[in-house]
Design goal:
Blueprint lengths: L2 H15 L4 H8 L3 H14 L19 H11 L10 H11 L6 H10 L27 E8 L9 E8 L5 E7 L4 H14 L5 E4 L13 H6 L6 H8 L3 E4 L7 H20 L5 H19 L19 H4 L2 E6 L5 E4 L2 E5 L12 E6 L5 E5 L2 E3 L1 E3 L25 H12 L1
Parallel strand pairs: 1-4, 4-5
Antiparallel strand pairs: 1-2, 2-3, 6-9, 7-8, 8-12, 9-10, 10-11
Length: 417
């Protein structure tokens, strides 16, 4: 018997011996006097067995089927299909892939009882101030890139570029890239703008892709402008507030997302047998949909803050890497080792001496603009001879100095005097 049952036996023994009355025994046991009388009668008949519950030693009516426990242990144990998944992730995949419905706490208890999982130790806590979520979806995005061996050696290492909405915790973009580059962030901004709209602000780290490290020149200061990276310029032109973070903890929501994905996503990529970045990117939409159903929260304000894209907006003008070129006398420009011949349009016949901008979209297509107006061009083939400028006439060489000229000049001046 346990300590509680031993105490009940002692009280009932004293009650039987007349050392206690029914009211006092009821108060000590925490039951009604009527229940004390029943316990006394049963104690006289059964003795110590009266304080032991009738279900002791019996199997629980709601216990987990032992065959099901054996199956779960085989799947989650050493060498099993889900060997290194955490409890929540294991619960999701057991439901989706194996049609096993089991509560998280029950699954956690079974794994601990079988020795498959152990309680993680707590690290030293650091005091930080809590930042509340933004009220409405689209008010703030957190973006970042995470270099990691996502394919666990089955394929090349990659950077996962992503964006998460601060108000809901919803993933709005994920893409594998060989490295964290401008093209990945351009695709992020364009995809979010197409699928959701333009956000009010974006929280990001101080990577040079997202924030120019250059100091403004004197001309920049006089003109009231500051140096911008290509991505920084796109955000400024679309009216997106750019907020640089000074520590990883400042953008903790997306940092925690990377921890979750480095636990869940790599294991699902492994289970799907994915070995290339192309296959991994094709897998991401299904994963994002399931993640958002599982973890996304409803915003405090149901009115979305996304700004829809105007129907007439030229995406190739905004979502592109941009460089400026000056038009030569033959209406050609040079760009990246190529010669582009600008063709006359209805509004512009010649742009000689003017500046145009070359826009390269993420797919690699090239567009040329002048004052936001697209220009038509053709690429000059390598076989076409470039115009040859006439060589300037050589300057006339001066005659060599006569060493006797000075002496003759002096003689002439002497004769005149």
């Amino acid at each position: 018997m346990n300590q509680k049952q031993q105490r009940e036996v002692e009280i009932l023994t004293r009650l039987k011996a007349g050392a206690l009355d029914v009211g006092t025994a009821a108060e000590l046991l925490g039951v009604s006097p009527r229940q004390v009388r029943r316990l006394r009668a049963r104690f006289r008949q059964e003795g110590f067995g009266a304080v032991i519950h009738g279900n002791v030693g019996r199997a629980a009516a709601n216990r987990t089927d032992p065959a099901l426990v054996t199956r779960i242990v085989a799947l989650a144990g050493q060498g099993g299909k889900y060997e290194d998944l955490n409890v929540c992730h294991l619960q999701d995949l057991l439901d989706e892939q194996e049609q096993i419905k089991i509560g998280r706490s029950t699954l956690d208890r079974l794994l601990r009882e079988t020795g498959l999982r152990h309680r993680a130790g707590r690290s030293a806590s650091v005091h930080r101030r809590r930042r509340l979520r933004r009220a409405a979806e689209g008010m703030l995005l957190q973006i970042d890139g995470s270099p990691f061996d996502w394919l666990e050696g089955r394929g090349p290492k990659a950077d996962l570029i992503g964006a998460i909405d601060d108000a809901t915790g919803k993933i709005v973009f994920l893409l594998f890239r060989p490295t964290e580059d401008q093209i990945g962030y351009l695709l992020l901004l364009r995809s979010v703008a197409r699928g959701y709209g333009i956000p009010m602000s974006i929280y990001h780290d101080r990577h040079t892709i997202l924030r120019s490290p250059k100091q403004p020149t004197l001309e920049d200061e006089l003109a009231g402008r500051s140096p911008m990276s290509q991505i920084q310029r796109v955000m400024a032109e679309l009216g997106i507030e750019s907020i640089p973070a000074y520590s990883p903890q400042a953008k903790g929501r997306i940092e925690r997302l990377w921890g979750t994905l480095q636990d869940r996503l790599i294991k699902e990529l492994r289970l799907a047998g994915i070995t290339t970045l192309e296959e991994a990117n094709a897998f991401l939409p299904r994963f994002i949909a399931r993640y958002n159903r599982r973890f996304a929260k409803a915003p405090q304000d149901p009115n979305s803050a996304w700004v829809p894209l105007p129907a007439e907006l030229d995406l190739n003008y905004y979502f592109a890497i941009r460089e400026t070129r000056k038009v030569r006398s033959d209406n050609c420009i040079s760009w990246s080792g190529r010669v582009l011949q600008l063709l006359p349009g209805p509004k512009t016949s010649s742009l000689v001496g003017r500046s145009v901008t070359v826009h390269v979209v993420p797919e690699g297509d090239i567009y040329v603009y002048h004052d936001r107006h697209p220009l038509t061009y053709r690429r000059v083939p390598v076989s076409d001879p470039l115009p040859v400028k006439p060589m300037p006439k050589p300057l006339r060489q001066p005659r060599p100095a006569d060493p006797k000229a000075k002496a003759r000049q002096r003689a002439w001046l002497y004769a005149q005097g």
